[in-house]
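Hey L., structure's done. Input below.
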Amino acid sequence: MTKEIISTDKAPQAIGTYSQAVKVGTTVYLSGQIPLIPETMEMVEGDIKLQIHRVFQNLLAVANATGGDLSDVVKLNIFLTDLSNFPHVNEVMAEYFQQPYPARAAIGVAALPKDAGVEMDAVMELSS
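Output:
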């Protein structure tokens, strides 16, 4: 098994002992992204929809660094500190994904790093 570590400056740098993504064969495992602005490593200010947009933009940047994009995502995990924000996730997600949508889980959690309201990770399958 050959692991390729994926890294890009277009997404937030790791704030712990992990890689932005790891590619094994044609499968890519994207680490969790919170609404950090890559250039400043500061959290996005504003409502939860702005935070959700930033998380999708961060995931997209890492996906692009693999040679793929969000259409290659086969599984998306969403972690929310307030599950009442789930309709906002659906609304914003429709701007980044088209059918067929990936498999997905939404999980309510007590807290996330840096007091984020949302975090997402994903699994991608590249065509080559």
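The radius of gyration is 14 Å. The chain has one domain: 3-125.

-- N.
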